[in-house]
Amino acid sequence: MRRSRATDSTGYLWVEDGEPKEGMVAEVAPVLPVAHTYSFTVPPSMEAALSLGQRVMVPLGRRGRPTVGFVVGLDRRAWDSTLRPVGSLVDAGSFLTADLIELGREISAHYCCPLGQTLKAITPEAVRKQRGLSKVRYARLIRTPDEIRADGKRIGAKRQAVIEALSGSPEPIRMEELLRQTASSVGILQAMSKDGWVEVSVRHELQAEDEADGPAVEPSFELNEEQRSALGQINAAIEADRFSVTLLFGVSGCGKTEVYIQAMRRVLEAGRQAILLVPEIVLTTQLVGRLAARFPRVAVNHSGLTEAARSLQWRRIAAGDKQVVIGTRSAVFAPCPKLGLICVDEEQETSFKNLQAPRFHVRDVAIMRGKQLDIPIVLGSATPSLETWYKSEHRADYRRLVIQRLAHAQSTHRGHGKRICRTEARRGFFADHGEALRGNAFARRAGIDLDEPPGVCTPRVLSGVPNAADLSELQCRTGRPYRDRAVDLSLLSMPRGDADCLPECDLRGEARAGRTGDAADRDPSHGAVPQGPHSAGGQ
Fold first, then answer.
1. Cα(81)–Cα(487) distance, rounded to whole angstroms?
2. Does residue 233 belong to any structural domain of this protein?
3. How many CB atoms lie within 10 A of CB 345?
4. Residues 370 and 304 sit within 8 Å (Cβ to Cβ)
5. What CA–CA distance (Å, rounded) separates 346 from 363?
6. Which residue from 140, 234, 237, 373 has the highest number of Cβ atoms inside 10 Å of its Cβ?
7. Separation between Cα atoms, residue 140 and residue 493, nearest integer Å
8. Gyration radius of the chain over CA positions
9. Are residues 350 and 298 in the same domain?
10. Quick check: 430 and 437 in contact, CB under 8 A?
């Protein structure tokens, strides 16, 4: 071994070269508030059982305190410095794929969160605890029949049957099946295990679902022209098989969800999986039934599920048994092996922001994952966030698709000169009061016949009081002077020139089609805005 004098930079009496060694080295990210990963040697007995994403126990610090960490790298290489060995395995297998580990690295760097804590947030606690799995016992023969006979112990008929059954199978046999084949008992197997002939092990296994998927039920309506145009461009991005972000901009009720469903159907036809992210659990519950009727295998993933249900769903998604995943924030990390599309509904919602470390935004993580896997991302919103709107205008990989018309379940009702949609009448929302009335009561007071067959109407917002900017914009679009009076704010969503053919709105939002001398126009009580139960004058 070569020994040399130390220089002034080392401070040691002499410097010795390390002895080079070669073997399996694991890069481990400890679940601690540290920004580094550490290298550990893998014992030869552990090499076959260790995999990426698996949790291990490693010694850290001068005292070698046992610490849990995630294996984020495995490599066979040489080293010439002292490396501690991996202590033990925490889990029998890995819960993270290589794609999720790489996504965790990007999230860790972007949001300044330690990698170990990031990977811990990606993997649900219920999955790590193996909730919902069934314990299945297996038996295998650990000594040959000749070695067993050489012991000189008496071998009964049932013991002989167990030995023959286990020796004829290269893999361990489930204990229930073994007992049924040999007509033996658990006591015999326990005695053989005590003698060192048989080894009994316990595995946590995922049981098959007993749910029977019914035939898919397709709706009878067809997409309108704007929906078909948006769907065609999204399908083109799916077939291009490259990363892109599509902002689907449309008012509430314009049928964005149906566009999501049709796009996911195209992905499923190609043998891939899709994720639909919604901001609230309530929306998840509403969409589950709708998607379950359209797709055969739908998984739900949100914090409202029990630990056992979340664990089972996670494992079935990872196994490829589920085609569509719908959920809230945690669903963005669904371990889909063949992910082809991610849709984020109401992308501007603040509930998509995670308030614990790592403090990520689901929309941004979905875009990170789409860029990593080279798949398209669809963002839907009626009021997009400022950053998404800006990127849709200035980024080459972003584009904006606009849907202005309401979807199929609409009809044009004329009550006191208004054009009111059936869905608006059912919901009973008044934009100028900001309160909801019961649909039937609103229909009666507005003079709307809800039994009229559905048709098509242009999107509109019920008459409200605009601000100065709205009045100025309306005057530019229509060429008519608008002062401080209630107008139809839907004119603001129309391109310039399209509102010229519409009738001017009076104080109550009523159409004046050359009937200025009509008593209805002169009567201030005619066409008055209905008052809500809690508004002024609604007693």
1. 78
2. yes
3. 20
4. no
5. 10
6. 234
7. 72
8. 33
9. yes
10. yes
User: pLDDT tens digits for 15-63?
Assistant: 566 677 888 999 999 999 998 999 999 999 899 899 999 999 999 988 9
Terminal alpha carbon distance of the chain: 98
Helix (H) or strand (E) holding 413: strand 413-415
Burial 368-393 (b: 16+ CB within 10 A, else e): bbbeebebbbbbbbeebbeebbebbe
Range of the domain at 239: 225-403
- In this structure, the number of other CB atoms found within 10 A of the CB of residue 10 comes to 10
**Pair type for strands 14-16 and 3-5:** antiparallel
pLDDT tens digits along 98-148: 999 999 999 999 999 999 999 999 998 888 888 877 788 888 888 888 888
358 cis-preceded (ω within 30 degrees of 0): yes
- Edge-to-edge, what's the strand order for the sheet holding 38-41? 38-41, 21-30, 65-79, 55-60, 88-89
In this prediction, residue 231 carries a pLDDT of 94
Per the structure, the count of domains in the chain is 4
Contact 146, 109 (CB under 8 A): no
For residue 518, the one-letter residue type is D
Q: Which residues contact 282 (CB under 8 A, 6 or more apart)?
A: none
Residue at token pair 């990872």: 318
Residue 468 lies in a domain: yes
Task: Report how far residue 286's alpha carbon sits from residue 326's, in angstroms, rounded to the nearest whole number.
Answer: 11
